[in-house]
Amino acid sequence: MPLLNxxxxxxxxxxxxxxxxxxxxxxxxxxxxxxxPDTVRELRARDIRTVIDLRGxxxxxxxDWAAAEEAGLRVLWAPLDASAEMAAIRPDALRTPDDLGRFxxxxxxxxxxxxxxxxxxxxxxxxxxxxxxxxxxxxxLLVALLLDLAGVPADEIADDYARTAxxxxxxxxxxAGTAGLGALNTKGTATGTGRAxxxxxxxxxxxxxxxAPAIRTFLGGIRTRxxxxxxxxxxxxxxxxxITAFRAKAATAPEPAVAPEPAVAPEPGVAQEPGVAQDSAAAPESDTGPESDTGxxxxxxxxxxxxxx
Length: 309
Hints:
Elements (H helix, E strand, L loop, with lengths): L9 H4 L11 E4 L8 H9 L2 E6 L12 H5 L3 E4 L5 H6 L8 H14 L1 H10 L5 E5 L5 H13 L4 H9 L5 H8 L36 H15 L2 H8 L3 H11 L59
Parallel strand pairs: 1-4, 2-3, 2-4
Helix pairs in contact: 5-7, 5-10, 6-11, 7-8, 8-10
């Protein structure tokens, strides 16, 4: 897959496959440099029909997903634009995972329309792909909301988010030179401040990592301030029907019911002694066929390679 940080969260955040079906929700970084026919073929092979782009206007180009749109995929722009929030904080204000989680909460609360548009789009037929620039922060918080809505435990949601750390070196290299993101390559410099040379905008240290506690803090903040993810999304303007539709779309199929064994009648003219079971050899064969696999989610290969590709 020619997309960095690409994976199906259901394969890592729901290892027992009892909360969300694989093949429903995918995440990635932005296409580098732009989606090409090979990328589109990979998306179509996974039945991805909707791409949700969370980037701000200054980060995106119409050419990024032109090939996908020409192939009939829907590309929805739902900008969780962090520029205002970034301008309002000092670089040293985002140093810990908890700081980062609180930043995610402020970002989600400040962009209710984009959150509602993205969640509503997740109910469309076929799978969806959610991405921002790195596929970490904005993608991380939106995917966390969707997984939480499906009932995936917070610790497993956080573990999936943290997998982005494996892809960060490649993402940083790919983002080098893009507008306003040069500072991503200063991790490990002598100063360690995340400040870019030549007057470029500084990047807070926590934004250079993907610590699992950040998502736990974010989801905890959602529950503390809004009661639940569902209540938060309703407050953002998501219709209750959309929440029901996403849960139904994401739900794993229940185990098929097995019909009970039919009652065995005694042979004509033979009295059945009280408390004595009929000889099993005389029982007619059950008309219950082999258990059907109809309705079970199909096996999906794990496309989430550690390389993030």
